[in-house]
Design goal:
2 copies of one chain form a homodimer. Chain A is of the alpha/beta class. Chain A has 9 helices and 15 strands. Helices cover about 25% and strands about 25% of the residues of chain A. In chain A, helix 2 packs across helix 3, helix 2 crosses helix 8 and helix 5 crosses helix 6.
């Protein structure tokens, strides 16, 4: 074991605005050796998600931030390469949170075994993992989806948005997506079956969205903030609900934007139209995990719910890929493949 | 009947900003005569409430606006002076919505008889009426008051705020009010028993509120908007709830204020702290009326819940009094006494 090298990506500086290369540092250390009760896990897939940008900041957030010199946090799928823990055997595939590195030792706490015959192991950090469950609980529990709701979801081709919209379609709703480039919009309406998709790059976004939502919006699943949110607010119907999942357009701002997008107009509409705006974090709703796996797992097996992965190879590419994710350059759930996946046909 | 004169206050113009005298017009017409099935009601008390400012605007709101030439809308307490309706007798006291006028004819729809031996009839538009029920449903149903919540309420000496805070105190919570002048703050902590009250006129409002809320805020009952809301947002704890009842500080604005009070910071906090912000209108929650009357009525009879009325005499003073209400000059539930109240000791 001792001759294994572990490449790790550390936080080198708290970013000011958009994270630059020097905010990260790649180091090589010897892979740790498992003590009694431990297992050594080789990372296969590293999940990159927008929430990680918040973890890089100083100061309080809903989760402990990454300190300078720490390994960047991430959900990972891996394989046990050595086990001194009776609950795990060499060769087991596992879901864990080992972060941006090739190897890690764990005592098995919070490590979940994956069965590659049930679903591809990469889905454990995607459609059947945190992003999928975020979509599920945000739409149904936080957003209180009701019969007849006109649904709009931003980042519609992304790991969360694609599941939100497809669940709403399965449940019989009219669904409009907001995405970036044309090929993503085409995917959203073609492959995923949304009723319409508008591009946030359009000069006429507000008008495009209004035209795509002739009956207004009853549920807006908020992933992006910024100008998309501004275009949505005037279209929110009485009793509309806004589950707030993410605000990616604002994550790299160093000061509040100026412009007409101000609290009073939002709050005025909140009052007059009895809006409900509710922030949420998927981990607050862990009691819904079984429902999620049963229901969404079933839809995936039946082919009703589709997913797309955007897999980049090599931990060397993690920083560049994360930067691309924050710019919306990914197309589907962003993964970094750190080492071979023996379950995936070559 | 036909020689009765009916003084009425009509909307003369949609206000631009703060309502000025010429936005209203007082006219005298002959009091209408009741047809078969009708009753003629003399207005005793006219309720003035901040929501009326919204009704004076052009364009859609949650209720039909007042058109130019219409009598200003208001909840009223009156006495039947002539009845051709079997359900009402001359002399009956009634709750109705006859607006800013001395007399009105009704077919009895939506008119509720009042028993002056149960509670003073004026309370039917106050603590046992719409403002009281707004407090009750906003705090308990919309705001989902939970054990241990630290509660803050703005317009704390007002018709709604005073009931919000007292219910929260009865239920064992720590309650901080925000009010204007010192005598109101003294009333809120003295008579009403809140734990603290800060003045929104203080130069150091944000610091004062922070000092008064050492454990942050779990439930903020929003009546005022503006700088009070700005001071509240940074203090909202995880899972805080903000029932949005009113935004009086913003009602007379002709354009959105500039400054640091912007959507992104509010929405960022909503996300990180999983806030729930929900607008509501009391009429959406009519199913809670019986609970409200039973529970709040009981607290009033037991002396646990106090109320204060600010009664101005004469319909001639309605406009000036409404303008004062919008400036926060009232102290307690604002009523205009339009004619004699035979149930009130001289």
């Amino acid at each position: 074991m001792s001759n294994l090298t572990n490449r790790q990506v550390l936080l080198n500086a708290h970013p000011v605005g958009f994270p630059v290369d020097t905010d990260f540092k790649m180091v090589e250390t010897p892979a740790p050796a498992p003590a009694d009760g431990d297992l050594l896990i080789r990372t296969i897939y590293l999940s990159l998600d927008p929430y990680m940008r918040g973890r890089m900041n100083q100061g309080p957030s809903y989760a402990t931030g990454v300190e300078i010199g720490d390994v960047m946090t991430a959900g990972t799928v891996g394989q046990v390469v050595a086990s001194k823990n009776d609950n795990f055997a060499e060769g087991d595939f596992v879901l864990c949170g080992n972060g941006w590195q090739e190897y890690a030792v764990s005592d098995g706490q919070g490590v979940r075994k994956l069965d590659p015959t049930v679903a591809p192991i990469s889905t454990a950090v995607g459609v059947l993992g945190m992003p999928g469950m975020t979509a599920y609980v945000g739409l149904l529990d936080v957003g209180e989806l009701k019969d007849g709701d006109n649904v709009v979801v931003s980042a519609a081709s992304g790991a969360v948005g694609a599941v939100v919209g497809q669940i709403a379609k399965i449940k019989g709703h009219r669904v409009v997506g907001v995405a970036g480039v044309q090929k993503k919009c085409d995917y959203v309406t073609g492959e995923l079956g949304f009723d319409a998709c508008v591009s946030h790059r359009s000069e006429t976004l507000a008008d495009d969205l209004k035209a795509a939502c002739p009956d207004g919006i009853d549920l807006y699943f908020e992933n992006v903030g910024g100008k998309v949110f501004e275009a949505v607010v005037p279209l929110l119907n009485d009793f509309a609900r806004v589950p707030v999942c993410g605000r990616i357009a604002n994550y790299n701002m160093t000061e509040p934007p100026s412009g007409p997008n101000q609290v009073p107009s939002l709050m005025q509409r909140t009052l007059v139209h009895r809006l409900m705006i509710r922030g949420f974090i998927v981990y607050d709703r862990a009691h819904l995990q079984d429902d999620f796996l049963r229901e969404v797992g079933g839809w995936i097996r039946s082919g009703q719910l589709k997913y797309r992965e955007d897999i980049v190879e090599g931990i060397d590419n993690a920083v560049r890929t994360f930067q691309g994710l924050l710019r919306g350059e990914n197309f589907g759930k962003q993964l970094v493949q750190v080492s071979d996946d023996p379950t995936r046909p070559a």
